[in-house]
Design a protein that fits this description.
Distance between the termini: 111 Å
CATH superfamily of the largest domain: Outer membrane efflux proteins (OEP)
Oligomer: single chain
Number of strands: 8
Number of helices: 11
CATH architecture of the largest domain: Up-down Bundle
Length: 506
């Protein structure tokens, strides 16, 4: 064996492969730089504060047990998510397949062939017809030396695509959760609207009866009765539309959660979840953890690796092949020493002329990499904008809600005074109707602001790719500015504590 020239050549080839194994054709990936500010917000002194760690179960910050249960059901039963998981598993299997190219292939081949040669050929006319039986069993072995890094680049691209598939699953999961939370919060605001409109209807019924009683004794006109009836009918129509929208929201939740028969009991009192408020000093680097940003980056990593894969076609492919086995006409002698057959050798395949196909493929891979680089930068910049939009909306809707709360309290007082003036004959019924319409509109505007504030909080969680850990200051407030113990707040105290006849005009 020491003087075997084949062994020496094999050792030389293996040695060269180890020497060149540290290099791979094509550019190595480096994360692109992004020109983003360090923080979204600063404290009052302008100082940057500590980082708020990401909370993947961000929906629990709303403090609603029914919502938590809905999310759990959605994550286990939603069909879109099941399809995304299947795509992720397929990409991971493709990565494992690419990784198998690092190792030699070993195949077992067996055959039993009986054949007859023609007696009419030139050799057959001399040797006559021949009938033979041949039985063969061999192990075929093949191995490619990854001298230029073709296999490494292929494996790098496959692993990046597998990660991209995983982040695509996570991105869909985040969007799905955000949709469920948004629809659920909208449904709960509808519940409060139903309670408010029902209370208004009851008060208007009492008002209608009072006006009818006055008309019977000659203290009111048919016009006032007609106006009271029309106001009651208009409110009833509004309530019907709100109930329709609530039903549609409930049906959508049933689809998302994979439960066609899902039914959610209406709220027994006017209370909806609070909007968690973000801590001061959220770092802009948080968006790098967003699954869609990570997905775009892994797609860029794969495209970068495929440049090297395309460039590797410029260089020769060196491989070892061989087989070892037995061949015999009889089964009894198939595994004897004289029946042994074997072969081994090295092969090299080098490109000479392909009329620019390789360079064209390199150009295609490079152009694809530049496209995905632009997509990555756009995704990062878009994510930063989404966070800023959500932060601005959350802050301004919070301010708007406070202003509308003041309007609602004033409208309630105005209606109470209008009723008192009408009852003593100091003003006409039109003043009462106008006050009723104003209060009704103020209630709906306030609840719309609450809905917008809640949905802005969901947009912020989605834009950040998650929430912040509990214990960070500023995560929830009530209308009065205190911390919420129940995780829910109601319509303003002025509207809550007012009796039905006082708040809606009877």
């Amino acid at each position: 064996m020491r003087n075997n020239p084949y062994a020496a050549r094999l050792a030389l080839t293996l040695g060269l492969s180890l020497v060149f194994s540290g290099c791979a054709i094509g550019p190595d990936y480096r994360r692109p730089e992004t020109s983003l500010p360090e923080r979204y917000v600063t404290d009052e002194a302008g100082n940057l504060t500590n980082t708020a760690p990401i909370n993947p179960e961000w929906w629990k910050l709303f403090g609603d047990a029914t919502l938590d249960q809905l999310i759990e059901q959605t994550l286990t039963r939603n069909q879109d998510l099941e399809a995304a998981v299947a795509r992720m598993e397929a990409a991971e299997a493709a990565a494992r397949e690419a990784g198998a190219d690092y190792f030699p292939t070993v195949d077992l081949q067996g055959a039993s062939i009986r054949s007859r040669t023609s007696g009419e050929t030139s050799s057959g006319q001399q040797m006559g017809v021949m009938t033979s039986t041949n039985r063969r069993i061999v192990l075929n072995i093949g191995y490619e030396f990854d001298i230029w890094g073709r296999l490494r680049r292929s494996n790098e691209a496959a692993r990046a695509e597998a990660l991209s598939g995983r982040f695509a699953r996570d991105s869909l999961r985040l969007s799905l959760i955000a949709q469920v939370v948004s629809v659920y919060l909208d449904l709960r605001v509808r519940d409060v609207e139903v309670l408010a409109m029902s209370r208004t209807l009851r008060a208007q019924e009492k008002t209608r009866d009072i006006v009818q009683g006055k008309k019977d004794v000659g203290a009111a006109s048919d016009l006032e009765v007609a106006q009271a009836v029309a106001a009651h009918a208009a409110t009833a129509a509004q309530l019907t539309e709100i109930l329709r929208q609530r039903t549609l929201a409930e049906n959508l939740l049933a689809l998302l959660a994979g439960q066609p028969g899902l039914r959610l009991e209406p709220l027994a009192e006017a209370a909806v979840p609070l909007s968690p408020l973000p801590p001061v000093g959220l770092p802009s680097a948080l968006i790098e953890a967003r699954p869609d940003v990570r997905q775009a980056e892994e797609a860029l990593v794969a495209a970068n690796a495929r440049i090297g894969l395309a460039k590797a076609a410029y260089f020769p492919v060196i491989s070892l092949t061989g087989f070892l086995g037995s061949e015999s006409a009889q089964f009894s002698s198939l595994f004897t020493r004289p029946a042994e057959v074997w072969s081994y050798g090295a092969a090299i395949t080098a490109p000479i002329f392909n009329w620019g196909r390789t360079s064209a493929r390199v150009d295609q891979a490079s152009a694809r990499q530049r496209e995905l680089l632009a997509n990555y930068q756009k995704t990062v910049q878009g994510a930063f904008r989404e966070v800023r939009d959500a932060l601005a909306s959350l802050s301004l809707f919070d301010r708007s809600e406070g202003e509308l709360q003041t309007q609602l309290a004033a409208a309630s007082d105005a209606l109470r005074l209008a009723n008192a003036r009408y009852e003593v004959g100091y003003s006409g019924f039109l003043e009462v109707l106008d006050s009723q319409r104003t209060l009704n509109a103020a209630q709906l505007q306030y609840l719309a602001a609450r809905r917008n504030r809640l949905l802005s909080a969901v947009d912020l969680f989605k834009a950040l790719g998650g929430g912040w850990q509990e214990g960070w200051e500023g995560q929830a407030e009530t209308e009065e500015g205190g911390a919420s113990e129940e995780g829910a707040s109601s319509i303003p105290p002025e509207a809550k504590k007012a009796p039905a006849d006082e708040s809606t005009g009877s």
